[in-house]
Design brief:
By secondary structure, the protein is of the alpha/beta class. Helices cover 47% and strands 9% of the residues. The protein is built from 20 helices and eleven strands. Strands 3, 4, 5, 6, 7, 8, 9, 10 and 11 form a nine-stranded parallel beta sheet that branches. The radius of gyration is 22 Å and the shape is globular. The termini are far apart. Bound molecules: iron/sulfur cluster (2 copies). One iron/sulfur cluster binds next to loops.
């Protein structure tokens, strides 16, 4: 039997089944151990320093105890601390993005995804470069600046050359005042050499969901195709980092396996990246299994209710405070509202989860990867966020200033976020309001920006941000950033 070793590069040693089972047992034994829980909560709380705020985070065992704990006042405290951390490191800013589906050809047999190879009736599509252009123009016309591109795994239809060509096309389109400034990539596990090519193409984050950390379930859920290889999939982030990609995004598909197992696996994976590469994951995504074409979510008997979903988000926030958290339009407006308070830092808006969906007037269903619960327009999402006290941000500054990996982390840890993210959020929101928003959203947004400018601590930064905002309003100058 493999021994747990967070520094190992072998999947069975760094995501070690024995360690996860021991963690679950430890959590179960200690879920009512009030003294231990108080110590863990004290460790998780943000600490003020001369420069700002720091957070220690939690180990997978500590975080699992909190997740198992059902003492009402302790659970309340978990939520309170999650909100504190969210405010300390992310403030009220929410980064906006949209997925762009390039191709749904896929040779894998994932049982939870309608793109699986044996689905013979779903419409298969692959965008041509001209279609990519049209999709991107439609996204730019909504106001998006940050995309996550998605493609099935198919070495013939979607080879790496196709993905690279699409990235070049996307970065090359400047329509009116629009531009996609950051392309994150969610494609199948691949080789170090291919990761290097993606890095050279200027991608932001490389995103790959483990789907489930439970190996036996993983093998059953991925019966055919290259994705069946659990180890190759789990070790992908190490290869991506070896290929020079600093920012990687983890995720599991909640509902496939027992959530406590997935949660421990996710935190263990984050610890492994930190132990080996000196930097943890840039983001964590928390999708839940949803209905789609021939997929019935009720077939998977590990679905989690909304309140447990909220608790998972809060516990992730405590465990890895510097990791961004992403929620998609899979979730309804109500679920997203609560999740935002507890630690989510990025949301998608106005998503179409089908290939070629943005150029269609009505949301097409024939090639969707999953049903979209939140179907509002980007303008509606932006307006709703502002009415709930959030600042929608279209910022992509870090990656373009070379602040990736540990350089990004040091920005977080030295408390410079208020002098950096905050003005960048206000400037990019101004761009959105001037170029794309409805009259009502614009009015709400300008009032919010006036208020929020005063929160920038550094006077020089504050003055420059105000000057740039005036420039955006009164000229075609764009893309200011700190
Ligand atoms: Fe293919 Fe990805 Fe769907 Fe699996 S989840 S069938 S790899 S597109
Ligand atoms: Fe993200 Fe960097 Fe922009 Fe802050 S400044 S919102 S960390 S890209």
């Amino acid at each position: 039997m493999a021994t747990y070793n967070p520094k190992s590069l072998k999947a069975e040693e760094f995501i070690n089944d024995g360690e996860i089972l021991a963690t679950l047992e430890y959590a179960e034994q200690n879920k009512h151990n009030a003294a231990l829980i108080d110590r863990i909560l004290a460790k998780a709380r943000p600490q003020k320093t001369e420069k700002g705020c720091v957070c220690q985070g939690l180990t997978h065992r500590e975080a699992s105890v909190l997740l198992a704990c059902d003492i009402p006042e302790k659970v309340e405290e978990i939520y309170r601390i999650a909100e504190e951390i969210k405010l300390a490191f992310y403030g009220n800013r929410i980064v906006m993005f949209a997925p762009l589906y390039l191709s749904n050809y896929c040779v894998n047999g994932c049982l939870y995804c309608p793109y699986h190879m044996s689905n013979k009736h779903i419409t298969r599509k692959k965008l041509t470069q001209e279609e990519v252009r049209q999709e991107v123009i439609a996204l730019q016309d909504m106001g998006h600046k940050r995309l996550a591109i998605e493609a099935g795994e198919d070495p013939v239809q979607n080879p790496i050359e196709y993905i690279l060509e699409c990235i070049r096309t996307i970065y090359g389109i400047n329509h009116k005042n629009g531009a996609i400034r950051r392309v994150n990539v969610n494609i199948a596990a691949t080789t170090v050499d291919n990761y290097r090519r993606l890095k050279e193409a200027g991608i932001g984050t490389y995103i790959l969901f483990q789907e489930t950390y439970h190996k036996k379930s993983y093998l059953e859920l991925h019966p055919t195709g290259p994705k069946h290889d659990y180890d190759y999939h789990a070790e992908a982030m190490d290869r991506a980092m070896e290929g020079g990609i600093d920012d990687v995004g983890l995720g599991v598909l909640f509902g496939l396996e027992m959530y406590k197992y997935e949660f421990a696996g996710l935190i263990i994976h984050a610890e492994h990246l930190e132990a080996v590469h000196g930097v943890g994951p840039h983001t964590i995504s928390i999708p839940r299994v949803k209905h789609a074409d021939d997929i019935d979510p009720d077939v998977f008997d590990n679905s989690i209710p909304d309140d447990m979903f909220a608790k998972i988000i809060a516990c992730i926030r405590l465990a890895v405070p510097y990791t961004g958290m992403i929620i998609s339009t899979r979730e309804s407006q109500e679920v997203r509202e609560q999740a935002l308070r507890l630690g989510i830092s990025q949301v998608s808006g106005a998503s179409r989860t089908s290939v070629g969906g943005y150029t269609e007037k009505e949301r097409p269903h024939d090639s969707e990867q999953f049903d979209v619960s939140d179907q509002r327009s980007l303008d509606e999402v932006v307006h709703w966020l502002m009415q709930n006290g959030h600042i929608p941000s279209f910022c992509t500054a870090c990656y373009r200033e070379g602040r990736t990996g540990d350089r990004f982390m040091s920005l977080c840890k030295t408390g410079q976020i208020l002098n950096c993210c905050h003005p960048n959020a206000l400037m990019t929101l101004t761009e959105y309001l001037v170029d794309y928003a409805s009259e009502e959203t614009r009015k709400t947004g300008f009032a919010l920006i006036e208020q929020e400018l005063s929160k920038i601590p550094n006077e020089k930064v504050r003055t420059t941000a105000a000057r740039n905002i005036a420039d955006i309003k009164h000229s075609n100058r764009r893309d200011f950033r700190f």
